[in-house]
Amino acid sequence: MKKLMLCLMICGMWASGARGIEISLKPLGTYSTGIFDDGAAQILDYHPVFKWLVITNAADEAIDVVKVHPAAKPELLFKIGLPGKPLSVAAHPRYGMVAVSVEAGDATEPGTVEFYRMTGQHLGSVQVGALPDMIVWTPDGRKLLVANEGEPNDDYTVDPPGSVSIITLGTGPALARVVADAAVETVGFDSVAVDPGVRIFGPGATATEDLEPEYIAVSEDSKTAWVTLQENNAIAKLDIDAATFSWVRSLGYKDHSILGNGLDASNKDDAIAITTWPVRGMYLPDAIAAFTIDGQQYLITANEGDSRDYDGFSEEERVKDLDLDPDAFAAWPDLADNGNLGRLKVTNTMGDLDDDGDYDELYCFGGRSFTIWTGDGVLVSDSGDQLEQIMAAKFPAYFNSTDDESAFDNRSDDKGPEPEHVTVADIGGSTVAFIGLERIGGIMVYDVSDPTGPRFLDYFNNRNFEADPETAQAGDLSTEGLLLIPADNSPTHTPLLVAANEISGSTTIFEVQVRLP
């Protein structure tokens, strides 16, 4: 109870002691597929001319095209059938065209990017790398970037190289010609120096095979991209025009023994216990966004965490199942108890510093946070344990719940809230970040105008924990994709935030309510 009261006090200070812009989210309308736990709403984009959403629907192997005018009553217009499972979608900022990345039947084989008119007619396709997990247009609309994750098969006998494909559109007045003349260059990691701290740990894998691009952010001038390499705990910088990687750098590790960097590490203690532990967190970011403040380039990552857990190779272990060095952990004699760190999942690929068969250090999955970095990958600030503290204050009965059932403390041993997605926008003269949480769900809102000291603004979770998760009454479950529609492109002429939710198969439109100082 004392810990919870302290959390409430801290969260209250974040809100009431704030200065500057204030933002809250108001749900306007929801488009629901009615499909539970089958990836029916994951990644989305918006075409500002048509005022339509395009949403990946893996369950139907389709893109759902949804009208959002009026925003309070989003309506499915039609579906675009696809030749396979969609992974990502991107509407062209000016052309009446949408691109969709599609996984091959064998996910270790090259995937494709399919191009369609916004009205659904197929324009053509190009081949890219294996598992094209994310696509994004450059701001100038000339190129489409594709993050080809290149995951291994389940036996870990085939491990295709990770890469980024750069698709340069053709020229001409006709969309069909623009696509027909498109050129593709797929850039791998065979000629770039990789920071020695980057995790290269797949069995027998080279760096080229082991690096797995997850998500891409692009600079405002369309010249540079930054790519998260999630399992590798790294970021790569890409020179778009030269089609070469400039560097691949490790993100380092988060010290959970420092006050303010605590975590709740057990799902078996029947309590909210956010505290410090002798463990290091691997950031392992999923989504990344780029923004500038006073001419300086910054990056922000959602530190979801992801492990390699295959039939042929798994790095996951619980602390209680490891042989811990008695001298290294002498100050914590009961560390491996289930109520302490025993249940926490960590990697078995790191921590035996002297190669004597026991573990001198522990490394867990994900930062349970968002982090701001410079454009060179240097840490500027991290949200520490704030996300868990805020959850504990707002939803103490469902703290660290999972996404497909309402269960107290369910995910504490396994990456906590799992920040999945992040998007950044200029709103009311402030730079605002929206962070989607995959497990308990909901959206955190921060003012990041001062990158060294992000300021908490709001946490809104459009979820009814009391309802049956398989019913519409449960609301939104498992925030997967976020999209900010600026006021000048919005059907309501106000900023809108749209969230696609993987488990509930629902997409909800929020009005971003702004109060200026």
Strand and helix map with partners:
Elements: H1 2-16, E1 22-32, E2 44-47, E3 52-57, E4 62-67, E5 75-81, E6 86-91, E7 97-102, E8 110-117, E9 122-130, E10 132-137, E11 143-148, E12 163-168, H2 175-180, E13 183-187, H3 207-210, E14 213-218, E15 224-229, E16 234-239, E17 244-250, E18 253-255, E19 280-282, E20 288-293, E21 296-302, E22 316-318, E23 345-347, E24 363-365, E25 370-374, E26 379-382, H4 386-394, E27 419-427, E28 430-437, E29 443-447, E30 455-460, E31 479-485, E32 496-501, E33 506-515
Parallel strand pairs: 19-24
Antiparallel strand pairs: 1-33, 2-3, 3-4, 4-5, 6-7, 7-8, 8-9, 10-11, 11-12, 12-13, 14-15, 15-16, 16-17, 18-19, 20-21, 21-25, 22-23, 25-26, 27-28, 28-29, 29-30, 31-32, 32-33
Helix pairs in contact: 1-4
